[in-house]
Amino acid sequence: MTVTIYDVAREAGVSMATVSRVVNNNPNVKPQTRKKVYEAIERLGYRPNAVARGLASKKTTTVGVVIPDISNAIFAEVARGIEDIANMYHYNIILCNADKRKEKEIRVINTLLEKQVDGLLFMGGAVTEEHLQAFKTANVPVVLCATSDENGQIPAVDINHEEAAFDAVKTLIANGHRKIAMISGTLQDPSNGYARFHGYKRALEAEGIAYDEDLVRIGNYRYESGVEAAKYFLELSERPTAIFAATDEMAIGAIHSIQDAGLKVPDHVSVISVDNSRMASMVRPQLTTVAQPMYDIGAVSMRLLTKLMKKEAVDQAKVILPHEVITRNSVGGLA
Q: Which domains does the chain show, CATH number per domain?
């Protein structure tokens, strides 16, 4: 049978109100009485009913997190930052994978809201009108994590994706490359897709390099799309001397495709990307990439959400964290 607060009170020889104060960390309980209650809880195996407590206080101390791809190490690092700060402020998280599908994202958001979460973190992916409508009717604070909405209506924590891509391509140009290909994410994605593509184009224009649509292929952020895009580039009559991939995973696919063709990175083709996932230092040659502070993005997002949930003052509702180019071995200079 389920052990109740009444059973604990009877076992400890105190009132139910005293047990409630102990469970809720109320300081107005004598140490000796607190010890008796904890001993009774331990003997009986009592577990407070979080649902009942939530109904009484109208707070569940639970945060819903929508993650676009749970198998992607980048999002796992963001989730770690979220969880560490959530634990610090005594919140639990419910993590839901949405497979980068809009209809599933909307469904997951609504499911989390039905579970009476106190706040919501939406991680990655395009923020559409349907998303905004769901957020506006949520009645709890929402923070966008590693993405943002076009009009800046929702608090968000991210990097400047366009500038990250710009810096990546400028690194290639500084090494003498002018025929630079790009493996892009979908252009419907405002951050990993469109913003990084626009940064690529802007870097070329800044150096007077003509944009060539034959040197751009749209990938799906996955390794396989990097492999296929690089194969296409290598079959061009005049292959590029460098490839900029929108993500590390696609960049690693490109590196392997180049190597499978009997060529060397960076001797024949240089490769650079954005993310700085753990895989970037595991591949050979190690990947030069623009680092996103993924853990910090998660941690700052969760801290911002705690302020909103507690109705504390927020100085900045949109936080842009810095990025940096991590130089390794996949980019070489042209003779």
A: 5-48 (1.10.260.40), 61-159+294-321 (3.40.50.2300), 161-291 (3.40.50.2300)
